[in-house]
Amino acid sequence: MTSLEILCALLVLALLGQQWIASWLDAPAVRTGATIFVAVCVQALPFLVLGVLISGAIAAFVPASLLDRLLPKREAVAVPVAGIAGVALPTCECAAVPVARRLMQQGVPTSVALAFLLAAPAVNPIVLVATSVAFPNAPAMVLARLTGSLATAVVMGWLWARFGKAAWIVERALRRIPEPDGRTRWRMFFETSRADLVDAGGFLVIGGLTAAVLNVVIPRAWVDSLGSQLVLGIVVMAALAVLLALCSEADAFVAASIAGMPLLPKLVFLVVGPAIDVKLFALQAGTFGRAFALRFAPATLVVATACAVVSGVVFLGGAG
């Protein structure tokens, strides 16, 4: 049985049961979930395309020798350099995943690529400007987010350099790419971009579907009742950042709209979200392997929460 025959069978079943399907899809929860699913995918897809184009350009036009010359030889110094380099790439977390994998395949140390993966979505100018607009009465929130996110990227890079193992990452993500000659560079650019888009796009759909279901399941009233409980608010906002899977360019406006919540839990939401959420976990699992994602994601959640709290205490004066 071919895929075409399966598609025809599904279409026939859909036609026969269209009244039941229409009544089921008309439920308010399903409509809300469908709207969120489409919003997550549409919001992330342009940046994912940008990321795979950048990854294809790195594979085709950036020789490994150039990266070796640009990065410091000492890995401990190269990690913060990669984090700061994230300022120059205005992209969301979806785009950073294929770029990080391409950097690994070009011989960049894994810890350096992962530092860039975590920094680029959170410290680029678009995100910082959006945060400033969302919090006009709290200008320190921009500096607090920048510091907390950059610290998360650097600390996770250093932790991976000390404790990470290459065996946790699937072999295809580390496989070195042969240097193309002048005639095949454009072919490699298009082929790698297409392959990365197909590969990452499927996991983006899975992550978007998960985020839609969780958005419907979690009652909004639970969040609104946490304003007077700082520690619980921090925990819940960190969990919401993981579950809601918002794009880093838009999450500041969502955080600002949560009435009654102090600034510190909102900062935790803004630092944790671009570092790890269900959408990003699905992309990491598909790109680097499940063994990597199951270790890297929980560690990132803990480090991002801790860095956000410390940054909030320093720049926001505690609860804020």
What features would you describe in this structure?
The chain crosses the membrane at residues 44-67, 111-135, 141-161, 197-218, 230-247, 254-276, 296-319. Keywords: Cell membrane, Membrane, Transmembrane, Transmembrane helix. This protein has 320 residues and is mainly alpha-helical. The protein has one domain (29-316). The protein has 17 helices and no strands. Helix 9 runs antiparallel to helix 17 (290-316), helix 11 runs antiparallel to helix 16 and helix 13 packs parallel to helix 15 (263-275). The radius of gyration is 21 Å and the shape is flat. The mean pLDDT is 80.
Output the keywords.
320 residues, mainly alpha, cell membrane, transmembrane, UPF0718, Permease, transmembrane helix
Write the layout of secondary structure elements.
Elements: H1 3-16, H2 18-25, H3 28-61, H4 64-70, H5 75-85, H6 93-105, H7 110-123, H8 125-134, H9 140-163, H10 171-174, H11 185-217, H12 220-224, H13 230-244, H14 251-257, H15 263-275, H16 278-288, H17 290-316
Helix pairs in contact: 3-6, 3-11, 5-7, 5-9, 6-7, 6-16, 7-9, 7-15, 8-9, 8-14, 9-15, 9-17, 11-16, 13-15, 14-15, 15-17, 16-17
GO cellular component, one term: plasma membrane
Membrane topology: Multi-pass membrane protein
Organism: Actinokineospora spheciospongiae
